[in-house]
Amino acid sequence: MYHELTHSTGHPSRLNREGITAQAGFGSEVYSREELVAELGSAYLCALTGIETGTIDNSAAYVAGWLRKLSDDRSLIITAASSAQKAVDYIMGFQGENRVPEKL
């Protein structure tokens, strides 16, 4: 659920992420980046909501598969993690440096 929720933040009316807004075929670089962002966002949200780590092995294998496709990009994990954090901040309603929810 969190994986798909993270994807939803890429819509043009939200964070306007290329992985959602551009035509990207399965396995393409753009598609692969978006999958990595969604999986990282899902992991962040699981940590925030206290969901147990039972899914970590599956998530790690899933991320590893996409990383193999993108192994030539040395900045990939940094940019994907940043995009995932922005998605989580959007979902959680965090704003500003103090990361306090906009609405409770």
Describe the structure.
- By secondary structure, this protein is mainly alpha-helical.
- The chain is 61% helix and 4% strand.
- It is built from 5 helices and 2 strands.
- A two-stranded antiparallel ribbon has the order 1-2.
- The protein starts with a helix and ends with a strand.
Per DSSP E runs of 2 or more residues, the count of β-strands stands at 2
Beta-strand percentage range? under 5%
Give the ordered list of helices and strands.
Answer: HHHHHEE
For the report, how would you describe the main beta sheet?
Answer: 2 strands, antiparallel
Which keywords apply here?
two-stranded antiparallel sheet, mainly alpha, 4% strand, single chain, 104 residues, globular
Q: How does the SSE layout of this entry go?
A:
Layout: H1 2-8, H2 18-21, H3 29-49, H4 56-69, H5 76-92, E1 94-95, E2 100-101
Antiparallel strand pairs: 1-2
Helix pairs in contact: 1-3, 3-4, 3-5
